[in-house]
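Late entry, nicotinamide-adenine-dinucleotide complex.
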Amino acid sequence: MRILVTGGAGFIGSNYIRHVLATHPQDEIVNFDKLTYAGNLDNLADISQNPRYKFVRGDICDSALVVDLLKQSIEAIVHFAAESHVDRSIVDAQEFIRTNVQGTFVILEAARRQRISRFIQISTDEVYGSMEPGEFANERSPLRPNSPYAASKAAADLLVRSYVKTYGFPAMVTRSSNNYGPRQFLEKLIPLMISNASEGKRLPVYGDGLNERDWIYVEDNCRALDRVLRDGRPGEVYNIGYGKPTPNLEIVRRLIVILGKSTDLIEFVADRPGHDRCYALNVEKLSGELAWQPAVDLEEGLRRTVEWYQKNADWMAKARSGEYQTYYEKLYSHRRSTLANL
Ligand code: NAD
Ligand code: TYD
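Prediction complete; structure with ligand written out below:
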């Protein structure tokens, strides 16, 4: 299968590409990414010369480029590309609406016209909004997004739904919980805490630190996404989660223990506006229909993650300095340059 992965230079996308190349020897991947501040080709350095992998730099809102790309024998699309950080969406939501809503529309419309046979919209548990204690969202739960990021993802999910219902377009939506693991950009909770603690800096915990997230190790999510791509039912939504929400403060404390640092580094700071208290997912549909279970428990996943960041000090230093951005601007000044080589 020839798969177009959008946003494959980001955290989950790069892990997913690596997973597909390792587990499906016949598959080819075209990675289409704009390389925003969150996109990082170093995430794929080890496979960049693989003959089954190609990179094209571009924007998913550029419909002429997307249409050209899909004509290159693309059979399936796994659509990761998005602005993904809630805090940034609170400061300025414009790019979230452009990429997450308009961009998804462009990809969907081109895919429908090109008769793409499998499509996954990568969504998030945040579209369900905050859960009450003991409440778990299933795929039929109402969408109640509370941040501009979550609203933009919910809007995209609804567009996908409309294409399924109106055109019979064979799309599926996956809604996963918070991912963690190697190659996550430093702005998100777990890598930020690892980075700051390693440098002896304060660890900013929002509010009382008791907000809960259902942290899933990124490789478990990638296995689930791949199960959905190959064996999921077109038109369906699948939740993907670990199944056990954990308070942020507990995550930070566990990291401190693994890193051998002091809890004195923790600093409680002003809460995020509209901060959802808890995300919790019911994942029975995925485990029942597609026989998927998470394989990496939280403690093991956090240890592996810390180890990866410790072993990849260069990656960390570049991410801290913002060096990636200028590097890519120089390297890929002509965005269509690699399209001709497909
Ligand atoms: P990320 O921010 O690490 O990566 C996003 C990637 O998309 C980057 O490589 C970026 O360059 C690319 N991109 C952004 N705008 C683009 C555009 N206009 N055109 C082309 N490429 C563009 O994100 P992530 O954490 O890997 O998340 C990937 C997807 O998974 C997103 O759709 C996100 O909403 C979803 N998701 C993430 C999590 C999580 O915990 N990280 C959880 C659930 C769902
Ligand atoms: P984050 O990693 O930004 O993911 P999301 O907002 O998509 O869930 O945040 C995870 C949780 O950690 C969330 O409850 C906010 C909290 N948080 C902090 O307490 N401090 C921080 O510095 C960050 C980035 C997040």
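The CA atoms of residues 210 and 247 lie 5 Å apart. Will revisit in the morning.
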